[in-house]
């Protein structure tokens, strides 16, 4: 048990060193990452648990509406499909914005790291390669992290949007007027 705790402490220290090496931008990227994945998991929960119940209620109501004469059912169907589109695709706007912010924050980290390199150059000239290397490391780390987060975010958003569109198509097919 103590070995497990020591291993966890080592991993925590390594993570804190990694985050500290990238500067404040890495902490901002980490916060956005937590927010993004919280939103993604919320959407997954919604699409798997909440939306099927909502769609089931609409299907049951649709079968009742089909029995009544009139052409107004098409307006009801269109309104329900618009609501479904808003429920499924509307909340994906914020995660899309967060994915767009990842590389921008990474570039901000690049700029701040290069400023550190130029500070070292201004103070000690080219005679301090260790100081320059630390600045270059600080410059490249947030850029890499921003790109990795953006790529993983794009893949997860594409999957969420594909699942949402598939659910919309299924609902539209189930609410057809025979």
Automatic annotation (TrEMBL):
Pfam families: MotA_ExbB. It is found in: Cell membrane; Membrane. InterPro entries: ExbB/TolQ_transport, MotA_ExbB_proton_chnl. Keywords: Cell membrane, Membrane, Protein transport, Transmembrane, Transmembrane helix, Transport. The chain crosses the membrane at residues 20-41, 97-123, 135-158. Residues 81-171 form the MotA/TolQ/ExbB proton channel domain. It is a multi-pass membrane protein. GO terms for cellular component: plasma membrane. One of its GO terms (biological process) is protein import. Belongs to the exbB/tolQ family. PANTHER family: PROTEIN TOLQ, TONB2 ENERGY TRANSDUCTION SYSTEM INNER MEMBRANE COMPONENT EXBB. This is Outer membrane transport energization protein ExbB.
């Amino acid at each position: 048990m103590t070995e497990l705790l020591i291993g966890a402490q080592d991993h925590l220290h390594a993570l804190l060193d990694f985050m500290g090496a990238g500067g404040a931008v890495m902490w901002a990227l980490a916060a956005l990452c937590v927010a993004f994945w919280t939103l993604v998991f919320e959407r997954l929960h919604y699409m798997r648990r909440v939306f099927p119940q909502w769609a089931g209620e609409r299907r049951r109501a649709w079968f009742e509406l089909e029995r009544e004469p009139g052409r107004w059912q098409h307006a009801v169907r269109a309104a329900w499909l618009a609501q479904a589109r808003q429920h499924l695709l509307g909340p994906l706007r914020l995660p899309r914005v967060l994915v767009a912010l990842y590389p921008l924050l990474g570039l901000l980290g690049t700029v701040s790291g290069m400023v550190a390199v130029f500070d070292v150059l201004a103070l000690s000239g080219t005679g301090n390669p260790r100081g320059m290397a630390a600045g270059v490391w600080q410059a490249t780390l947030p850029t890499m992290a921003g790109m990795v987060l953006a790529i993983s975010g794009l893949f997860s958003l594409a999957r969420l949007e594909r699942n949402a569109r598939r659910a919309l198509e299924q609902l539209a097919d189930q609410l057809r007027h025979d």
